[in-house]
Amino acid sequence: MSLLKIEGLGKSYTADKQILKNVNFEIKAGEFVSIIGPSGAGKSTMLRCINRMVEFNEGKIIFNHQDVGSLNNKELRKLRTNIGMVFQHYNLVPRLTVIENVLHGRFGYKTTLQGVLGRYTEEEKERAFYLLEKLGIHEHAYKRCDQLSGGQQQRVGICRALIQEPKLILCDEPIASLDPSSSKVIMDHLKSISTEMGITCLVNLHQVEVAQHYSDHIIGLNKGEVVFRGEGSELSAEQIQKIYETNTKDLIIE
Ligand SMILES: Nc1ncnc2c1ncn2[C@@H]1O[C@H](COP(=O)(O)OP(=O)(O)OP(=O)(O)O)[C@@H](O)[C@H]1O
Description:
Elements: E1 2-11, E2 20-28, E3 32-36, H1 43-50, E4 58-63, E5 66-67, H2 73-81, E6 83-86, H3 98-103, H4 112-116, H5 122-134, H6 150-162, E7 168-172, H7 180-195, E8 200-204, H8 208-214, E9 217-222, E10 225-230, H9 237-244
Parallel strand pairs: 3-8, 3-9, 6-7, 7-8
Antiparallel strand pairs: 1-2, 1-4, 4-5, 9-10
Helix pairs in contact: 6-7
């Protein structure tokens, strides 16, 4: 069943430069899909169009049978509870505790006053603990977020997305600031979120081999156009060259 359908998507921030050009793809519920491409290809813009953090200019986005472009503010707020987001720099509130940051994921379900006063139900607090435990960081629940390592902070970011009870999680370069071992922990968690919890993951990545290892499908973007769509095993050196406009050996930093 299709969860997300992108049809003829176009985006430009300024009149002189088209960032996304006629982008088309479809993602099924529960799939793990990566977007790869060189810096500036439009990967972040693509993700942000899906929840309308960035307004797109052309085409259609259908998410969970809803036409995203036609939603009013109230409908958009509701839609965003179904779409979690994980960021490269975690986007946590550093001076607040881990558990408070996780509970921020419930904001979309609250009135502004409830959110500002930090009014959460016992059930929400239990769920936050359960998620922290699942991601192996429950012993840090009452620490300030800025006392945690990058990998731990990213796990808090994932818990905050999960407590929204999303159907889709958008991850914008979730491992770009992490060392290889923390990166593996994060990617393993994201993968099990899709396979065990059935939550669809759309992940922007810089590392081709990571995308190949974890993804059901890969989308290759070059200058805002989809130049590859397929499984990791179908991604040949020639395809990689088409995406990055460079030889694969040039992608290895020695
Ligand atoms: N708010 C904005 N206003 C104007 N131009 C923007 C804005 N955001 C992004 N751009 C431009 O859009 C292009 C695509 O940027 P985007 O961040 O989507 O690419 P990316 O593939 O995610 O790059 P990276 O891998 O470096 O994060 C770039 O040329 C960028 O300068």
